[in-house]
């Protein structure tokens, strides 16, 4: 067949040789290279047909080269897109088209959706960020659920001034830190932005709870790895007992302890655990007795966990319990006694429903000393 085509070319019948090759779907590099001898229009048409032939053979990159030679840029981009070669499609579009061409956004969107289906959430987020779709990018990253992705998601959400959604992601990240006993990491994260400081009371409450519960139940693991002194957060190593900044004395009065309770009161220095926590809050977090500020903090933390989930894993349970205890103590500071009781009962019932009797008894000694 090749000799027959060569004979037609020797005769000067370039168009005839090309017609034979096109009819038999036997176009090749050398026969297409002869097309300009016939006419420019014929060369463009033959190049496009040869690209189709190459596409059918799976030679996508070579096919695109011939489409570009025929000045069929959009068809070349579409060829890459049809075969899920989005990286090449985007690169070609960025090189050959205007930066504001709508096809770029379509490519990034389809590429991002394809990556999401494949579970490549980080790459999908990059696609959405390329289009400045920050909210879509944060949703993609949040599906990963690891600390690095959640941390990035928190800061991305702040870029679009969505403080509440950023706090939701921050709480998920915070929960992971607390379950691992990574209190210093949680503290460092909470100090990265003013928005995240609302989580610091939960951090302090959880750290103090776990440390003292571990002393009461040394054989129980309240975090995913055994508690050690190196895990404790560093708030500047201030002396709490010697601090000049103290809560009002009526909050620290230990004379109210009821001797009829069925367990021995657990004292930290001269104070019960609730009093100790309030003192630490006041000294390290500058939590004052301003009712309006306390209620605002209570409302903000309550919104982070609108739905309670039934859990059995002790480290995860104590993150939820720490939130309950934090809310209970905040309610006490605002004289909302009934609300405080609800939160504290929820903390205890959470352990009871999960069947952790030993941990329940220890928690009762801490938060119900009187």
- Give me the strand/helix succession: HHHHHHHHHHHHHHEEHHHHH
Intertermini distance: 102 Å
- Total discrete domains: 2
Number of strands: 2
How many helix segments?
19
GO molecular function: mRNA 3'-UTR binding
Protein name: Gem-associated protein 5 TPR domain-containing protein
InterPro entries: Gemin-5 (IPR052640), TPR_GEMI5 (IPR056421)
Organism: Candidula unifasciata
Blueprint (SSEs and pairs):
Blueprint: H1 2-10, H2 14-23, H3 29-33, H4 40-56, H5 60-69, H6 73-82, H7 86-96, H8 102-117, H9 121-130, H10 134-142, H11 147-159, H12 163-180, H13 183-190, H14 200-216, E1 267-268, E2 271-272, H15 273-284, H16 291-304, H17 314-333, H18 337-354, H19 357-367
Antiparallel strand pairs: 1-2
Helix pairs in contact: 1-2, 4-5, 5-6, 6-7, 7-8, 8-9, 9-10, 10-11, 11-12, 12-13, 12-17, 13-14, 14-17, 14-19, 16-17, 17-18, 18-19
GO cellular component, one term: SMN complex
Domain Gem-associated protein 5 TPR: 2-183
InterPro entries: Gemin-5 (IPR052640), TPR_GEMI5 (IPR056421)
Short note summarizing the structure:
One of its GO terms (cellular component) is nucleus. The chain is 64% helix and 1% strand.
How would you describe the overall organization of this protein?
With 370 residues, the protein is mainly α. The protein folds into 2 domains: 2-142, Serine Threonine Protein Phosphatase 5, Tetratricopeptide repeat, CATH 1.25.40.470; 180-367, no CATH class. 64% of the residues lie in helices and 1% in strands. The protein contains 19 helices and 2 strands. Strands 1-2 form a two-stranded antiparallel ribbon. Strand 1 and strand 2 (271-272) form a beta hairpin. The longest helix is centred in the last third of the chain and has 20 residues, at 314-333. The radius of gyration is 34 Å and the shape is rod-shaped. This is Gem-associated protein 5 TPR domain-containing protein. Residues 2-183 form the Gem-associated protein 5 TPR domain. GO terms for molecular function: mRNA 3'-UTR binding. It comes from Candidula unifasciata. InterPro entries: Gemin-5 (IPR052640), TPR_GEMI5 (IPR056421).
